[in-house]
Amino acid sequence: MAILLTLLSVFCAAIPMLTFLGLVWWLDRNDREPLWLFGLVFLWGVIGAIFVALVGSEVMMQPLTLIMGPDAAEQWSAVLVAPFIEEPSKAAILFAVMFSRHFDNAADGFVYGAAAGLGFGMTENFLYFSSVAMSGDVMAWVSTVVIRTFFSAVMHACATSCVGACLGFARFRGPIFKILCVPFGFMCAMGIHGLWNGMLTVSDVAGMPELSSLNFVLFIGEFFFIFALFQLALWDERATIRRELADEVKLGTLPLAHASGIASTFKRGGGTWLPKGVPRWPYVRAVVTLGLRKHQSRNSSGSTHAFYADEVLRLRAEVKALQGLARPA
């Protein structure tokens, strides 16, 4: 039975997280991230963040053990160590991705942060699932799978998405926003992580199972609050695209029908606004990217502004070339 449960642990750790990962990518409907970069961030969570967190936790446990003793340190490490080591470990990749031309705003930060968190959750889940599997206790294994799949791993995604959203929000704003937003993002991430682990730990230590039930309820509330913030970020991104495309209509780059069709995520895939012969999705991608690059050019300076200004000119030329493929009606 232990061997069978261990084999099942591989699938139960991987399949749900990959499903959640695909759902997060799909929800980013205005300007979906390139799969290669999205997958790279996920892999950092799977391998890199786990390795860094294991090393960091081992280092931090040494003084904690000296102060509290081995038993107490092990018991409280989920509260006193995990949030402060694991959150920076997961978010480290975001500080590299934020300088990519694909990292535009808070919506992108939510998406990349969730990817890193889900990757971390997948590996951590496997370690927990396989550990419980060795006991051969089927009910304990099933309970662990359910709780860690739908709560603990999702908690990792929610926590890291807060850091990513703050980085995205500050990306094209002044230094004061970066100074304030980055610590705030980590405070939110560590707070979510610490509250989840803390209530479970206190429930176990104090023998208060009702705290565990309250913990689940609180986390569900946190999840829907973060999801609402993600939707707000998507709305802001969509408003930016609409505004910039309206300007391109005035400049003559786009017909009004094209701007209206592309600005609506529901109209993009259908309707008669696009002439025959123009490849729909390359054209949509070029126009949406043009809108975002204009916004970035407007809110940047120095060499960064020069890069995005060149991108705007290149994308306008690409849009015109794609329009030139239209066949006569």
Fold and architecture overview:
- 83% of the residues lie in helices and 0% in strands.
- The protein is mainly α.
- The chain has 2 domains: 2-235, no CATH class; 252-323, no CATH class.
- It starts with a helix and ends in a 6-residue tail after the last helix.
Structural class: mainly alpha
**For this entry, what is the oligomeric state of its chains?**
single chain
| Largest sheet: number of strands, sense, barrel closure | none
User: What's the number of helices?
Assistant: 11
Element-by-element helix/strand order: HHHHHHHHHHH
- Distance, first to last CA: 67 Å
C-alpha Rg (nearest Å): 23 Å
Please tell me the overall pLDDT: 93
Roughly how much helix do the residues carry, as a percent range?
over 70%
Overall geometry comes to: elongated
Strand content: under 5%
Number of strands: 0
Number of domains: 2
Poorly predicted spans:
none
Write the layout of secondary structure elements.
Blueprint: H1 2-27, H2 35-68, H3 70-80, H4 82-97, H5 106-133, H6 138-170, H7 175-206, H8 209-251, H9 256-263, H10 280-298, H11 302-323
Helix pairs in contact: 1-5, 1-6, 2-3, 2-4, 2-5, 3-7, 4-5, 4-6, 4-7, 5-6, 6-7, 6-8, 7-8, 8-9, 8-10, 10-11
Which key phrases capture this entry?
2 domains; mainly alpha; 11 helices; 329 residues
Briefly say what this structure is.
By secondary structure, the protein is an all-alpha fold. The protein folds into two domains: 2-235, no CATH class; 252-323, no CATH class. It contains eleven helices and no strands.
